[in-house]
UniProtKB/TrEMBL annotation:
InterPro entries: Aminotransferase_I/II_large (IPR004839), Class-II_PLP-Dep_Aminotrans (IPR051798), PyrdxlP-dep_Trfase (IPR015424), PyrdxlP-dep_Trfase_major (IPR015421), PyrdxlP-dep_Trfase_small (IPR015422). It is an enzyme of class 4 (lyase). The keyword Lyase applies. PANTHER family: CYSTATHIONINE BETA-LYASE-RELATED, PROTEIN MALY. This is cysteine-S-conjugate beta-lyase. Keywords: Lyase, Pyridoxal phosphate. Its cofactor is pyridoxal 5'-phosphate. The keyword Ion transport does not apply. It comes from Actinoplanes auranticolor. Residues 37-367 form the Aminotransferase class I/classII large domain. SUPFAM superfamilies: PLP-dependent transferases. GO terms for molecular function: cysteine-S-conjugate beta-lyase activity; pyridoxal phosphate binding. Gene3D superfamilies: Aspartate Aminotransferase, domain 1, Type I PLP-dependent aspartate aminotransferase-like (Major domain).
Amino acid sequence: MFVDSLETLRKRRSAKWRTYPDDVLPMGVAELDCSLAPAVTAALRAAVEAADTGYSAAQPELGAAVAGFAARRWGWEVDPAAVTAVTDVGVGVVELLRMLTRPADTVVISPPVYPPFFDWPPEAGVQLREVPLTAEYRLDLPALEAAFAAHPAVYILCNPHNPVGRVHTPDELAALVRLAKLYGVTIISDEIHSPLVLPGARFTPMLTVPGAAEVTVSLMSASKAFNLAGLKCAAIVTGGAAMAALVERFPPDIRWRTGHLGVVATVAAFTDGDAWLDDLLAELDARRGQLGEQLRTRLPKITWTPPEATYLAWLDCRALGEDNEPREMFLSRARVGLEPGTRFGARGAGFVRLNFGTSADILDEATARMASATDR
Ligand SMILES: Cc1ncc(COP(=O)(O)O)c(C=O)c1O
């Protein structure tokens, strides 16, 4: 993975590089610091040079690209016609919730989890119920059963799970499907991090779990793995008529709201990006190892469970005794910008999330700065 110097990275105008002043190392927002996959750059360059910058008309290329990627990476057979372009994962989830719920309904999520999971249900006008992950960061199936028995409309699954990096097992997903069917709950499976499953773990697409297609809608995107978040394209995938009918009922204007360059880039990434992605995964594996080693030697009071997927590390800083807001301490004393654990739910107090999708040098600088702040 080629990562530019900090000086060059600071010229980026995206959220990661605009959140803090220049003396802060930004290790928060989930963007990658590497250059784009060559296939993506070539596709975007060709589109711009041809002034091919109008409205998106994603079909049929997007469906074919998603289906090809799913088949090659996980042996998952996706019907290209069952793939629908949408602005981003957030828009996709909110529109699905609008189709699946009525005002008094409840939606269940499992914190600690990606902060917008807390915002999407209220945006769609429904209540939220939290069923936290277990202490080992696994789905708490007995607690989920108790919650499902009250007949919530939807469970939003995060697989792989941001911020803890858990890749849920086939058995866990099968148990979830059984509960969803038993209690009439629809599962929205956010699989945006699935291309980022690291060596040692294996991803199970929810729609490959027997029986899941009747009760599951999945969302895929190239935006995390290929750093395309600003281009605005994600894909809703269904595996059966009932779930496909939900998408068919979407307001017609939705299709005009996907980024055309997002579709162009996503098609290139999912069609011709495998070799680049494999290199990226090897690099991220190395960064994960580097972070583990540097936490052990430089920041021994911080504990973590190395993630099975993603470039995000969920760091337990409670032993530092920083009034449960270590993010403020690392920002003010170390000038390192991290995501505060409390954004991922109340039990995130005392935690931070660190993005290691960067160069060995920048990660080294971040942990050195953090260590000197805790030494004081
Ligand atoms: C689990 C999860 N879902 C969705 C998103 C955001 O996706 P999008 O920008 O497509 O809405 C992120 C971004 O980090 C994420 O981690």
